[in-house]
Amino acid sequence: MHHEREGIQPVEPANHFSVLRRYWRLLVGCTLAALVVGFLLTPAGNAVDNGKWQCKVAITPVAGAGDTVRADQVLSYASGSDVTTAAAKKLHVTDVQGLVARRTVAAASTQMLVFTTTGPTQQSCTELAAAFSEATINGYSQEAAKSANDSIKRLQAQAAGQQDQVNQLQHDFNKASGADQPKLQPQLTAAVNALTSTLTKISTLQNYSQTDAIQQWGSIDARETGGSLLSSPSRGVRLGLAVVLGLALGVVAALMLSRMDTRLRTRNGAEEAFNLPVIGEIPQLSRRLRRLREPLVVARPSDPGAEAYRSLRSTLLLTGPSTLSAQLSDGTLNPAELISRRLANPAPVILVMSGRSGDGRTTTVANLAAALAETGRAVLVLDCDFRQPQAHVHFGVGDGPGMAELLSGEQLPELDDLIRGTNVDGVSLITGGNTTAYPAALVLRAGEVLRRARRHADVVLIDSSPLLHANDAYDLVQHADAILVTVMAGNVTPEQADRVSELLSRTGVPVAGVALLGTVGPSGRRNRDALRSPAALGARPASPALPRQALDEPKGRKSAPSWARRGPVLAGEPAVARSEGEEL
């Protein structure tokens, strides 16, 4: 006996490839979004907004010009448009604003100015720094020389006046008497000193105007810096990196959505949620196969999906009622003997139901009927989905009177008048009909109709309405020998599955299991411990089906037995009542 489970069972690793395949639209959307953003945010061609190389060059006054040159003056001139225009001209570049964006200039001290430039390569960065340095040195030196020449002209005019004053004082000194000359001597000396000072300034300015006022200090310092996606020299490289980034974001988003999506997609998840074994896994079909107007088992007999339906049939024959596994129609009986045989051994009724619409219920009925017909059984399909009857579409039968008219009493009581042949040998159909009455009221006569239907085939399959959307299927359950639940991968939540399991447990009708449709790849090892039903707690041989009187128990019974409240009864297992305190 298995030990009782405690806590949360370990979860098997997710199939990442299946997750990515499921969310492929999200991956494509993230990749395209990253591609568009990368295209809009990155410049075209080989242009860059911040390069991978950084160069610095320092500028200081020449020797002897430190008193007349200040860094703030040079900074003001270097930041002007004249220097940028001269640098662009030297580099033969027309985009002047682009050069401005690639250089910064700042005063490192009162005697030093520093240019910083960027570029995609060391050569381009060095050439730009050299061009700005040369343009600043030449331009400022020319401005300084022009200012010096203006000062020289002013001082020369001043010196000429001073020279006239000295000449006049010297003339007066020579004519003066010996007693007056000592009085004129201080004036003459002062005038000569003033003239000498002016001439000295003129000489200094003349020397200053003939040389550069500032000079480059040392060599250009070039260093490589780390680039970014947007600074790559090639737009193709940038867009390629953007695609990779978008794809990575899409993968992360897909895995996060997969974690948050609790809908049932795997075998283990379905078994644990429904508390029932999955007896068939139907792979996801292509859109072309889903559009077929006949069962896949007949249209594409070698397709993996058709083989999956045959596997479901075989499992249903082994686990279903004992009358289902019997070969009632061996082909050697005449019609009278066949009728007598069916009266003695009525055909089993299999109710195919689902919790929600879109769970592949009608498709499963059509293919399961075709698969059973391949074994030589005569199959009768009853379309009891009175809201959206679609069985006639799968079997190539036109719409017309059917179960709705039969159950409402509008047609003759003979089923032969309503049973119609199909495009599948061995399969007949009673369509849903044209119902105008409230669907729930039609199933009141279902017991009598199904009793008579058992005599017209070896197996009777019923297609019903979704259990969670309508009460029709729940009213039909009491007349069935076994139930097959279908679920489409990704269409049902664990809460909805638990509700279906709870409703079925109250009926006491054997449940064959669950058919999981639309699976992508293998869904993993079956977790038997996840099943809490009696049949899941240990392997045991198939037992006879429930007695007919137990299956036909009136709907008005007061309560289901204690074993029914623990979980749905599996088809082929005896319904043995247990007390509430008894262990399984």
UniProtKB/TrEMBL annotation:
<feature type="domain" description="AAA">
    <location>
        <begin position="349"/>
        <end position="489"/>
    </location>
</feature>
<dbReference type="Pfam" id="PF13614">
    <property type="entry name" value="AAA_31"/>
</dbReference>
<keyword id="KW-0472">Membrane</keyword>
<keyword id="KW-0829">Tyrosine-protein kinase</keyword>
<keyword id="KW-0175">Coiled coil</keyword>
<feature type="region of interest" description="Disordered">
    <location>
        <begin position="535"/>
        <end position="584"/>
    </location>
</feature>
<dbReference type="InterPro" id="IPR050445">
    <property type="entry name" value="Bact_polysacc_biosynth/exp"/>
</dbReference>
<keyword id="KW-0808">Transferase</keyword>
<feature type="transmembrane region" description="Helical">
    <location>
        <begin position="239"/>
        <end position="257"/>
    </location>
</feature>
<feature type="transmembrane region" description="Helical">
    <location>
        <begin position="23"/>
        <end position="41"/>
    </location>
</feature>
<keyword id="KW-0812">Transmembrane</keyword>
<keyword id="KW-0067">ATP-binding</keyword>
<keyword id="KW-1133">Transmembrane helix</keyword>
<protein>
    <submittedName>
        <fullName>Mrp family chromosome partitioning ATPase</fullName>
    </submittedName>
</protein>
<dbReference type="InterPro" id="IPR025669">
    <property type="entry name" value="AAA_dom"/>
</dbReference>
<dbReference type="InterPro" id="IPR005702">
    <property type="entry name" value="Wzc-like_C"/>
</dbReference>
<feature type="coiled-coil region">
    <location>
        <begin position="145"/>
        <end position="172"/>
    </location>
</feature>
<keyword id="KW-0418">Kinase</keyword>
<keyword id="KW-0547">Nucleotide-binding</keyword>
<dbReference type="InterPro" id="IPR027417">
    <property type="entry name" value="P-loop_NTPase"/>
</dbReference>
